[in-house]
């Protein structure tokens, strides 16, 4: 009787672990796909923006004037901080998933 009850606990424990691993692997893959998409999108955006570093405005006679803008404005630093947080979040998710798998492989 005791052995049979213990066997059921072991089976339930293994089922719980496999379901948790499956759940975390889905989150891990979705996060990696999001990071890939976001980084590729930002690289394309940065390449497009690097060629257009001027501001178009009009003077008092409504003539179009191109003024060069600085590349190191507030927007530049916000993008750097945003990239840092997103990349660090991706690294943390990868490390947590690796440690989770390592813990339950024993």
From TrEMBL:
Keywords recorded for this protein, A-Z: Membrane, Transmembrane, Transmembrane helix
Membrane-crossing segments per the record: 34-56, 76-100
Name recorded for this polypeptide: Uncharacterized protein
Organism: Edhazardia aedis (strain USNM 41457)
Keyword Transmembrane belongs to the record: yes
């Amino acid at each position: 009787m005791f052995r049979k009850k213990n066997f059921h606990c072991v089976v339930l424990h293994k089922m719980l672990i496999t379901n948790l691993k499956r759940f975390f692997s889905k989150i891990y893959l979705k996060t990696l796909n999001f990071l890939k998409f976001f980084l590729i999108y930002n690289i394309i955006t940065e390449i497009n923006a690097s060629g257009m570093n001027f501001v178009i405005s009009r003077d008092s006679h409504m003539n179009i004037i191109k003024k060069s803008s600085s590349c190191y404005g507030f927007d530049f630093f916000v993008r750097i901080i945003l990239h840092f947080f997103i990349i660090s979040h991706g690294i943390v998710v990868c490390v947590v998933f690796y440690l989770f798998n390592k813990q339950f492989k024993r």
